Amino acid sequence: MSPTRREILRTVGSVTALATTSAVTGCNTFQNSNDVHTGPATVKAADVPVGGGTVIDGTNFVITQPTKGTFKGFVRVCPHAGCQVDKVHDGAILCPCHGSKFAITDGHVTQGPATSGLGKATVTQKGETLTISGS
Ligand code: FES
């Protein structure tokens, strides 16, 4: 006996829901935010390339320098499913989980699947030292 259209749709829906749950769970496992420092962090201004940025390992932050002397701070949590962005390349902040990209200028989405930008963080400069903290 062939399955009815309703039975087929029900099965497809269940498989889709399972796949989505697995993908999100995988991201959350990857993130492991228990070891991430959310408090202020410091980095040398010279360590943040002009036209690029630096992911501050062990923290929840990324600092970019879109133009010489202008620093921007963002929270590393990808708004798509919670992975941590982990690279800055070709003017974009990259999420390793599903390929979202965010602009180094203001954190807006330049490539999905994320539909919103990165959260902003506050960057202050004292001499050659940048301090970044949650806003
Ligand atoms: S968590 Fe999916 S693209 Fe970042």
Automatic annotation (TrEMBL):
GO molecular function: 2 iron, 2 sulfur cluster binding; metal ion binding; monooxygenase activity; oxidoreductase activity, acting on paired donors, with incorporation or reduction of molecular oxygen
Cofactor(s) listed in the protein's UniProt record: [2Fe-2S] cluster
Pfam families, sorted: Rieske
Entries under InterPro entries matching the protein: Rieske_2Fe-2S, Rieske_2Fe-2S_sf, Rieske_Fe-S_prot, Rieske_Fe-S_prot_C
Entry annotated with the keyword Iron-sulfur: yes
Keyword Nucleotide-binding belongs to the record: no
GO CC entries: membrane
Domain Rieske: 40-132
Alphabetic keyword roster: 2Fe-2S, Disulfide bond, Iron, Iron-sulfur, Metal-binding
Main function: Iron-sulfur subunit of the cytochrome bc1 complex, an essential component of the respiratory electron transport chain required for ATP synthesis. The bc1 complex catalyzes the oxidation of menaquinol and the reduction of cytochrome c in the respiratory chain. The bc1 complex operates through a Q-cycle mechanism that couples electron transfer to generation of the proton gradient that drives ATP synthesis.
Protein name from the UniProt record: Cytochrome bc1 complex Rieske iron-sulfur subunit
Upper taxonomic lineage: Bacteria, Bacillati, Actinomycetota, Actinomycetes, Propionibacteriales
